[in-house]
Amino acid sequence: MVYLTTTLPLISLSINFHHTRHPANKSTYTPNNNVGYFYNLPRNKTAKQGIDIFIKKSVKHKQIPISSNIATLAVEIDIGFKFSVITCYIPPHPNFNSREVIKIADSFSTPSTILGDFNAWSSLWGSSSIKRRGQELEDTTLAKSLVVLNDGQPTHFSTHNSFTHVDIVLSTASIAHKLSSLILKDFHNSDNFPIVTTLSTPSLHTIKPRAKFLTEKADWAKYCSLISSFILEKAISSNINAEASTIKSVILSAAHLAIPQTNTKQFSTKLPYWSKMLSVLRNRKQTLWATYKHNRTINNLIQYKKANATFRKELKNAKRQSFVKFTAYIK
């Protein structure tokens, strides 16, 4: 499975492509074992835009240069077949030219998905009203036979306390049947709801981890005793191959009984800073958010914002304390 996400913190998945808006004047942490390619627009003039793509180093990919007035980043990925991921950001105020989107779509011969914050309103992706930019983007979508993958749910909670549908996921028809999108219900510390788009791919053969003998914990007296006992039980053969096989079997049988082995069960990594208190605070703010969505009153919104602020404050403090504790052992 391949996962494409929008406005969601970097997550560890088998293959992860990440699009987000983030302040251009702040650094972005990109773990070395996850990132093979990172890009942020060098011409940003405000702290309200920026696009990037994160791809695991093990995934074969290359950057596709795009000449456009729209902030655009594109890569071609090869996972047995080639397809392209294009991420865009269009600020609310600049004039929009639909020819730019057509130009971007025409730049690729491979199956493609286009995702980003277009700041466009159209009923095609769930907006209750349609505006000029939304109409132009809708016409472009239909003209290029693109498929809208949004499920109709809002993607953004504005500063005016209203829900909008500004983040859009488009796909070429040739790959749309393999894609599905889900708009998550939690902000994940953003003002946009994350959109997870999944590309179904053939299952790959995975190699299970092998157990290793913990020789430092071995009971060598028991091991030697078992070797002697097993050898006496085996008949001597004149066939050198059969004798070698017998010796190997005796050694392994004794080792399994006298030497402990590593656990091959795979455990998920736990966050060192997470606690029951953070779980309670997170659940509370999510409950208050659900209450506000059901009954949109100012009081409910204030209660949610207070709970969210408390959660973010405690989360930040927990991360800081965990980091201090970790670095205390570094000399």
UniProtKB/TrEMBL annotation:
Pfam families xrefs: Exo_endo_phos_2
InterPro entries: Endo/exonu/phosph_ase_sf, Endo/exonuclease/phosphatase
Superkingdom as given in the UniProt entry: Eukaryota
Molecular functions (GO terms): RNA-directed DNA polymerase activity
SUPFAM superfamilies, per the entry: DNase I-like (SSF56219)
Family annotation (Gene3D superfamilies): Endonuclease/exonuclease/phosphatase
Keywords from the UniProt entry: Nucleotidyltransferase, RNA-directed DNA polymerase, Transferase
Domain Endonuclease/exonuclease/phosphatase, first and last residues per copy: 84-195
Keyword Nucleotidyltransferase: yes
Listed name of the protein: Putative RNA-directed DNA polymerase from transposon X-element
Organism per entry: Bactrocera latifrons (Malaysian fruit fly)
Taxonomic lineage of the native organism: Eukaryota, Metazoa, Ecdysozoa, Arthropoda, Hexapoda
Gene that encodes the chain: ORF2_14
